[in-house]
Design goal:
Helices cover 43% and strands 16% of the residues. It is built from 17 helices and 14 strands. Helix 6 packs across helix 8. The longest helix has 23 residues, at 170-192. This is Aminopeptidase.
């Protein structure tokens, strides 16, 4: 039987607070300054000095502005770091708007296919409700960007620059989701009415044509052929004519994207280590690259990231950036805020508990560009963010090793750094399919 709060209980709580000599002082501080400012321990800044034993020079940070494309910025940043080294172009950027266009176009088709696949289920089913909650959004995962590049290539930012709607995406997202939900009504009705497959395909084709028009007006229509004109850091002039997005990728990045694999750390009972996982209904390109995660211990997770940094290559990673993070100073450290001491409450939970109970998931993707090794062990990590140069140290953050343990969930590494047993598992094991709402399906 449910029990209500009694007057005696409230009286006891009030008496306990009145007996605490620090209560009124803390009440004034917290109520006027806020929880974070009052609980901040600025001694953390000393430990998080931005000096690293391995420190890659990756140039100026990018700025995703008011959009949720961090995963895309971070992935393209790892590629531009490589391109900049090869072609002496330190301040060069790849077009995030180009990949954004094709990602949203493909996500629309992916949504339509999932609507049709679940059309026999009531709208009250959890899967249908999950689909309709967010038909598409800015977020994504590494494998999803690879799927876009493998199909459409990439281009320099100078060829397809940002627009109002790419940099401030809320209007586009709400308008596109309005259309997708309306189209879901139509598609489900067509299935319910036992409409022929040909007529359903024709209806979907019309819908995709409208999506293409909506995206072209909002983001600009993607180029199919272009000239790449630039001056390198030594002021030498270059022009490369008649490129396509695919030929540009092949010539200027020339990565075999299948070499780069997703490594996760999810210490929950349902995901044994050293096995692979995918997530139902997670993706963008139908029949494109599958999202596939290899779950490893945190020790292996960090060792793989360090190997790639030691080889001179930056590392895409996903984390829960809002936890114990000071945005303006650019510090991510479990010691930065001490809410336990402030409130005399034990707030501690394990990483597995936070994942299982909805307290944490991957919310942001950035790039590891350095690490400080002391006696061979990492103490802090250098992080390239995509929030512009006005936060952190000209846009770069410092992450404590303890923060990585607790709030980092994913890195992408070249599989050459995997030990043979894990490499074989990643390449050959059929992944366990997780539910659509699993935290490892969160979009950064």
């Amino acid at each position: 039987m449910s029990k209500e709060i009694t007057a005696d209980q409230t009286a006891r709580y009030q008496q306990a607070l009145a007996a605490d000599p620090t209560a009124k002082v803390l009440e004034r501080a917290v109520s006027h300054q806020g929880i974070l400012a009052t609980s901040a321990d600025y001694a953390s800044e000393t430990d998080m000095t931005p000096v690293f034993s391995i420190d890659l020079d990756t140039g100026k940070v990018a700025n995703q502005k008011q959009s949720g494309r961090c995963w895309m910025f971070a992935a393209l940043n790892t590629m531009r770091h490589h391109l900049a080294d090869l072609f002496n172009l330190s301040d060069f950027e790849l077009s995030q708007n180009y990949t954004n266009f094709w990602d949203k176009f493909e996500k629309a088709n992916y949504f339509y296919e999932n609507v049709l696949a679940t059309a026999d289920q009531p709208t009250s089913s959890r899967k249908v409700a999950f689909l309709m909650a967010t038909p598409q959004q800015d977020g994504g995962q590494w494998d999803m960007l690879c799927a876009i590049i493998e199909k459409y290539g990439i281009v320099p930012k100078s060829v397809m620059p940002e627009t109002y709607n790419s940099s401030k995406s809320s209007e586009l997202n709400s308008t596109l989701n309005l259309k997708l939900r309306k189209d879901a009504v139509t598609l489900r009705k067509l299935v319910a009415d036992k409409t022929s497959d040909a007529d359903i395909a024709a209806a979907k084709d019309k819908m995709l044509g409208e999506v293409y028009r909506l995206l072209s007006f909002s983001l600009g229509e993607p180029v199919s052929e272009f000239d790449f004109e630039y001056r390198d850091d030594d002021k030498n002039y270059h022009i490369d004519k008649g490129l396509t997005p695919k030929s540009f990728f092949d010539k200027y990045v020339n990565w075999d994207l299948s070499d780069y694999v997703s490594i996760i750390n999810a210490p929950t009972d349902d995901k044994p280590y050293n096995h692979t996982y995918t997530v139902e209904m997670l993706g963008n390109v139908v029949n494109g690259r599958q999202v596939k995660h290899l779950n490893v211990t945190m020790k292996d997770f960090k060792a793989l990231a360090i190997k790639q940094l030691q080889a001179g290559q930056s590392v895409w990673f996903g984390c829960d950036v809002g936890q114990s993070s000071e945005r303006q100073k650019g510090i991510m450290d479990t010691k930065f805020y001490d809410k336990d001491a402030l409130f005399n409450i034990d707030f501690s939970t394990t990483k597995a508990e936070r994942l299982d109970y909805g307290e944490s998931m991957m919310t942001h993707a950035m790039v590891l560009t350095g690490v400080d090794l002391v006696d061979g062990q990492p103490t802090k990590w250098k992080v390239e963010n995509s929030w512009g140069e006005k936060v952190g140290t000209k846009g770069y953050f410092v992450m404590s090793d303890a923060w990585m343990d607790e709030y980092c969930y994913q890195v992408v590494v070249n599989k050459q750094f995997l030990p043979d047993d894990l490499k074989k598992t990643q390449e050959t094991e059929e992944p366990t399919v997780l539910a659509p709402w699993d935290p490892m399906g969160a979009l950064a």
